[in-house]
Description:
By secondary structure, the chain is an alpha/beta fold. The protein is 36% helix and 18% strand. The protein starts with a strand and ends with a strand.
Amino acid sequence: MITIKTDVLIIGAGLAGLYTALNITTDKQVDIIVKEDLNDTNSRLAQGGIAGELDITPKNIESHINDTLTAGSFLNKKAAVELLVTEAKENIEHLMTLGVPFDTNDTGDILLTKEGGHSTRRVLHSGGDSTGKEIMTALRTRAKVQKNIHIHTRTTALDLIYDANTCRGVQSINQDNESMILLSNQTVVATGGIGNIYGATTNSTSATADGIGLSYRANVDIRHMEFIQFHPTAFHNEVSEYRQKFLISEAVRGEGATLLNADGERFMEKYDDRLELAPRDKVSQAIYREMYDTWTDHVYLDCRHLGKDFLENRFPTIYQHCLEAGYDIATELLPVSPVEHFSVGGITTNLDGKTSMDRLYACGECASNGVHGANRLASNSLLECIVFGKRISERINEQPALEDEFDPSINVNNPRNYNYIPMKKKLAMIMDEYVGIVRSKDGLTFAKKQIIALEKKLLNYPNNNKYYYEALNMVQTAKLIIKHSLARKTSIGCHYRID
Length: 499
Ligand code: SIN
């Protein structure tokens, strides 16, 4: 068994993890563990952009705060939203100094776009529609050369190590199935999303609810898991057998694309005055209704009026991907459907990212600091990672060096080489059918029984293996989503009850 002692342990190397690491003072040793490699993160897949007011007039700040609260159905924590919006500028400017090339016009002014729920253009983008990739490339380059940052790729966090209510680190396993114990003075969970709990998601295949699962098993507070955001427009590719679906950024609608149903009719005016630029919960629920009414599993995105030149230049990744898949979006309608996109709830934190466990922080999609309410405003997620990552690093930087010894006394069994794929498939079928965009008490109750049976099977036959822990994290997170969905009996935001 390998044992490493460090000042700061970060689980996950998406934007939340890397930005936090880069803001820790260089006198502290930072160890980052990442399940796959640095290219495999949800942050890298973000297309549309990062929201943030650079022109910080009181009117602009107020407007971003109001849009965030409105999209979240006012279930947000207002103090968290105020921090998110007011600390956006300094952190976005810091991204620029770290080398992120945001798109500009010929005279060097930052270009801004609009997405659903935003009342003005305030979303910065990079590479047209590859904002996440550009940001992550810049941060990865920095992190790799910073001497106090040590990145362990293909290393899976299994369980938190804790003593009463104090986090001491994490038990993990590397790609050679060797156990690694990482003991840390401060630990940050930044594991990203939960997408693979469902049959179709925009998330990376590695998004298996790991941070929520390991926090749940350590009795750390978790909230608002009923709010699962479905992105309205994933490319509806019937031949794909994979869960991961290609995202068609909301920025495409922000630039004027419209939605048509199976009869070729524009339909959003029936549901919301903001039409295709209503917040995501409203658009996904409208699409669900249209698909239901027409016995069809997709609707269409109409970009034809935007023109080939504009589409090719403004959305190079999307244009090319669709072309390679057989659709020229400059001349053809594109089939799209809503798929799981973002976990709005997560590990409960205060305004400094601190969880209910001592020495444990959470940041990014796996955290719930109160900014999103019942539905996240588009492009506030990358912003959340940097604003709260910075706040967490500041709190950690204030901590004195700790010298306390801790003996974790951990016994590990030899891992068995099982892949748990049948169980993951069954889980996704249950979640799609009963815990999707539309929910009912009967469906949720049925799903709960099935999920508890899956959890029991896993707990009865523990296995010190990456895939076992992924399955356990997914099943236990699904259990929380159902529990919280049953507890919230009325519809709000992403949680839509038909009963
Ligand atoms: C998109 O580009 O539509 C996704 C951005 C986000 O999830 O905020």
